[in-house]
Amino acid sequence: MTEQRKQHITLQLDAHHISLNVIADQEHLYRNATKILNEKYRHYQRKMQTSSAEQLWVYVALDMAVNLCAEEHAQRLQPIDEKIKEIIDTKSSFADWLNNQNVRNQLKLDIKICLVKNGYPPQYSPEVFNKVMEQVENFEENQ
């Protein structure tokens, strides 16, 4: 394994200077992350003018964590979305499933099985299945 070249950089977060040794090829990632953090900090600083710097950084951290969780959730659902689209494409190639209750019921069951097999939702919830089916129907009607 080859050792990657390190580079010393100094970043500014609000009024604080932070010195780091980073992999040279990743310097731009640290600079971009610093820019995003500072933008979020200034956003919360404008919104919550009476908050301390510590409180503002907590809001920034929470904001970033929520965004990361949402992104991970979307990535986890991507394969499920593709499988559902495949199920819909297959059913719709043989029948007008929106207007045929038997085909519609089978589609609903196939989608439910697909979701469960892929661990979604984490806890059983009929509302989630209904919401997914509603989105499928809305998407198909607006095609």
Strand content: 5-15%
Question: What is the CA-atom radius of gyration, in angstroms?
Answer: 24 Å
Annotation field: number of helices = 4
Question: How many structural units, i.e. domains?
Answer: 2
Order of helices and strands: EEHHHH
User: What is the count of β-strands?
Assistant: 2
Question: Would you write up a description of this structure?
Answer:
It is a single chain. The chain has 143 residues and is mainly alpha-helical. It folds into two domains: 6-69, no CATH class; 75-141, no CATH class. Helix content is 67%, strand content 11%. It is built from four helices and two strands; from the N terminus they run ββαααα. It has helices at residues 27-47, 53-94, 101-117, 126-141, and strands at residues 6-13, 16-23. Strands 1-2 form a two-stranded antiparallel ribbon. Helix 1 (27-47) crosses helix 2 and helix 2 crosses helix 3 (101-117). The protein is elongated and about 65 Å long. The chain starts with 5 loop residues before the first strand and ends with a helix.
Summarize the SSE layout with pairings.
Blueprint: E1 6-13, E2 16-23, H1 27-47, H2 53-94, H3 101-117, H4 126-141
Helix pairs in contact: 1-2, 2-3
